[in-house]
Design a protein that fits this description.
The structure is a single chain. The chain is of the alpha+beta class and about 230 residues long. The chain folds into 3 domains: about 1-25, no CATH class; about 30-110, Endonuclease I-creI; about 135-225, no CATH class. It contains 10 helices and 4 strands. The chain has a 4-stranded antiparallel sheet. Strand 1 and strand 2 (about 55-65) form a beta hairpin. The longest helix has about 50 residues, at about 110-160. It starts with a helix and ends with a helix.
Length: about 230
């Protein structure tokens, strides 16, 4: 008890009378480990940690006159925080998961730190999975649109007999596309034992030929002549 009184600088008279007044903690002269121990005590007595809804929020609720002082002390140890007055009380907050994790690590709050890191990893994995799924969905949508264009061009060229007059590779790719409309260019090239670039050029050739017919049919000059 005597050592604790010295460390906290509590007046013996205040202890005997049951008063709660404490002399100010000597922050400016205290070593780093004492500062962190004091901050741990402030967190246990006045702090709360919320990890709900995928967000991290740690706050200290203190006397209004202490909020700015505590924010400055946290900045001294490399953990700057925001503060405000809420319903007559001072509130010092962190909303950065990295900052909260650093604080919990430095004060030795292992269990809370593990939970925070587990949630951060889970959130990062969900974000990466969503990114991959979105990218795959976009690629699939583009492939579907491209296959639709290819099939429409093939039907048009086949209807007027031009497809039969195309080079062998173009006719081969047209047949392969009709047989496997869902295949990607790479898959189609492997199936036909062609280079991917050859498949792409053949499909682009058919689209260009078909597009010329569409443009000719919709040309204002031709419509006016008709």
């Amino acid at each position: 008890m005597g050592r604790l009184l010295v460390r906290l600088r509590r007046a013996p008279r205040a202890v005997e009378s049951g008063a709660a007044d404490l002399a100010a903690f000597g922050w400016d002269t205290a070593p780093e480990h004492c500062r962190l121990a004091w901050l741990r005590g402030r967190f246990l007595a006045r702090g709360s940690l919320s990890l709900a809804g995928g967000r991290t929020h740690l706050e200290f609720v203190v006397e209004s006159t202490e909020a700015a002082i505590l924010a400055g002390q946290l900045a001294d140890v490399g953990l700057p925080a925001a503060w405000r007055i809420r319903r007559g009380r001072g509130v010092v907050t962190w909303k950065s998961g990295d900052t909260v994790g650093t604080f919990l690590r430095r004060i030795g709050a292992g269990a809370a730190l593990l939970e925070l890191e587990a949630r951060q990893v889970s959130r990062a994995l969900r974000g990466e999975l969503n990114r991959v799924l979105n990218a795959e969905s976009a690629n699939l949508q583009r492939a579907v649109w491209a296959a639709g264009r290819h099939l429409a061009a093939i039907r048009l060229l086949e209807a007027d007999g031009r497809l039969a007059r195309q080079p062998y590779v173009v006719r081969l790719v047209a047949e392969g596309r009709r047989a496997t409309p869902e295949a990607t260019l790479t898959e189609l090239a492997e199936r036909l034992t062609l280079h991917r670039s050859a498949v792409q050029r053949a499909l682009e050739r058919m689209e260009r030929l078909a597009l010329r017919d569409v443009e000719a049919e919709t040309s204002p000059r031709l419509r006016s002549v008709g």
